[in-house]
Amino acid sequence: MEDVMHGRGTRDDYAAMVAQHYFMYLALEEAAAGFAEDPAYAVFHPAALIRLPALEADLEHLMGADWRERIAPVPAVAAYADRIRAVAAEGWKAGVLAHHYTRYLGDLSGGQMIARVMVQQHEFDAAGVAFYDFTELGDLREFKERYRDALDAVGAGLDSAERQRVVDEVREAYRFNTETFIDLDKARAAAAA
């Protein structure tokens, strides 16, 4: 990730990261579908936030039409997707929200810098970085403020034990993300050997 962020990563490094995002967001967007009927949670996942079509377009641009046959989740991402699905299967919406917040708010913030670096380094236009194009959301700062306000409203309805449980789940999400980059580094080293 450090190489990607500092413009030292290759196109293949970036494509490998996008492939892992695909598996993360496949699980996350399946889980977020459980928000649709609950007004307190539906606000977190408007249609303009859905990322899978953009990820699919990016992967086709980066890897070709056969991209689905060429990608697999690294162990950390497989475990991450399993965790998201388990939390959703439990019906724990606040737990799904912990993962939702970690991924989407990260991509709405730091992800914008990744997109700029990739456009500059690899001369992408919209193709290749569509995942980071959130223009349909309108002003990103305003969206993030509304998101945080809705998050505060959900948090206010939770007792202290449940809030702590959600915080612990956010930490799990961060751990999975860190382990994803470790696994990607291992895969890159193995491919180079």
Based on the structure, what is the oligomeric state of the protein chains?
single chain
Shape estimate: globular
Q: Compute the CA-based radius of gyration.
A: 17 Å
Helix content: over 70%
User: Which sequence of SSEs, written as H and E, runs from N to C?
Assistant: HHHHHHHHHH
Broad structural category: mainly alpha
The main sheet comes to: none
Number of helices: 10
Write the layout of secondary structure elements.
Blueprint: H1 2-5, H2 11-32, H3 39-42, H4 52-63, H5 67-70, H6 75-89, H7 93-108, H8 110-122, H9 140-156, H10 160-192
Task: Pick out its properties.
193 residues, mainly alpha
Structure characterization notes:
This protein has 193 residues and is mostly helical. 73% of the residues lie in helices and 0% in strands. Helix 2 (11-32) packs antiparallel against helix 4, helix 2 packs parallel to helix 6 and helix 6 packs antiparallel against helix 10 (160-192).
